Amino acid sequence: MRRIVLTFGLIAGAVMSAMMLITIPFHEQLGDGTGMALGYTAMVLASVLIYVGIRQHRDVVLGGSISYWQGLKVGLLISAVAVACYVITWQVIYYGWFPDFAEVYGAEAVRRLQESGASAAEIAETTAEMQRFAELYKNPLVNIAFTILEPLPVVLLFSLVSAGLLRKPASAT
After folding, report:
1. How many helices (H) and strands (E) does the chain have?
2. Which of 96, 105, 160 is nearest to 127 (CA)?
3. Is the pTM of this model over 0.85?
4. I need a labelling partner for 154 at 20 to 30 A (CA). Which of 47, 124, 137, 145 fits?
5. Are 140 and 112 in contact (CB under 8 A)?
6. Is 117 exposed, middle or buried (0-12, 13-18, 19+ CB in 10 A)?
7. For residue range 108-123, what is the model confidence (pLDDT) as tens digits?
8. What DSSP designation does 139 have?
């Protein structure tokens, strides 16, 4: 199981990390919406490897049968490896090349709010909120926690659904 988990987890993590590395330099040109769509598309594509990994474990290691819980365990372990790769990649990008990410993100949010014609009170409230976020984001544990939350819903959903789709009880002989 370890080989399957590491193989598919590392490939899934590489796909998510590669997309992040490719899109980060163009974040200003892409805009938040397009960048986010590309990122989540990469997460979904990478998460297909969770299904493939569970199926490989079922067919090769377990001889064609797997319980839901066994499949879920494999899926979650593959997810953990992939998410770890994603988090490590972001930490390298953040601390190495983009340490002002939270400030840039906050300034962009305030700029969009100003362009939308928001009131001065709304702008002031958002500015203060973004400043608190930027300060909080400097804490590595908070930074890591926020980063984990990005792919987590996608990989959890794929693990849950894949385990259900691939479960196959042992045939009674």
Report:
1. 7, 0
2. 105
3. yes
4. 137
5. no
6. exposed
7. 888 888 888 888 888 8
8. S
